[in-house]
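During the second half of the funding period, the structural biology subgroup turned its attention to how the target accommodates small molecules. The most pressing case was biotin, which had performed well in the primary screen but for which no bound structure existed. We therefore specified the complex as follows and requested a full 3D prediction, including the ligand pose.
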Amino acid sequence: MTFPVVGSTNTQLKEKIKSSPGAVFDVIAADTQTGGRGRLGRSFYSPAGGVYFSAAYPIAGNEKNVPFFTLLSGLAVSRALEELTGAKTLVKWPNDVYLNGKKLCGILTERIDRGGRTHLICGVGVNAEIKKEDIPAELAGKMTSLRAEGLPVPDKTALIKRCVENLDALVYEKDLLNETSPDIVSELNEKSFLFGKPVFYQGRNGVCGRINEDGSINILFGEEEKRIFSGELLPISDFRSPI
Ligand code: BTN
């Protein structure tokens, strides 16, 4: 179902699932969002010319590694973009897709437990047709679009379909919320935007290492390596001191 304008496709899909937990929902898409939501309570800039959609994934709820869903979502989108546009994108742990050092796509995953059923929602916003000159000044240098990078903009329905098919295969066919796959972990590491980059995490400077089979990422703080399971890693070059 595609709408010209919604507040947020994630919110709309969540409300539908909550009001009819037994029904089957798949995808809600929109041409524009007036209240696009990002991680950590942020807003997501969603003008016309983007591809915004949310897909529901019913799961049992007792899978061994549900948080891995976010990384699988990034991988599914990155693969779809390469398949349809040739773009060699990278996945920025845990939830963004980058192209040429800038954010091309944001992903917000959410979980709903209602009426004895569990759904995961994968919400994807791809900057597709936005022209370079229309990128707001505060996002310039951080955000890009397919068009701004001189890439073809695929048919939006085809892009959504491919993303959803790719994620279906990873979640259901390969059962990667329960099973570990060295091949998938290798692919995630090959596509890892942060690998080897200096990052700022919870007041400390570190260097990003590999993504692990449980979805965590290693950070080297001096001599000490830690597994990070959640939060935000800011590449040092992106960090702006408040003074
Ligand atoms: C982020 O950058 O922190 C994640 C952004 C996720 C944006 C997508 S657009 C479709 C879906 N609906 C939303 O409100 N958010 C997600």
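Two results from this model are relevant to the next phase. Residues 239-243 have pLDDT under 50 and may be disordered. The pocket of biotin is lined by residues 8-10, 33, 36-39, 42, 44, 52, 54, 96, 106-108, 123-125 (CB under 6 Å).
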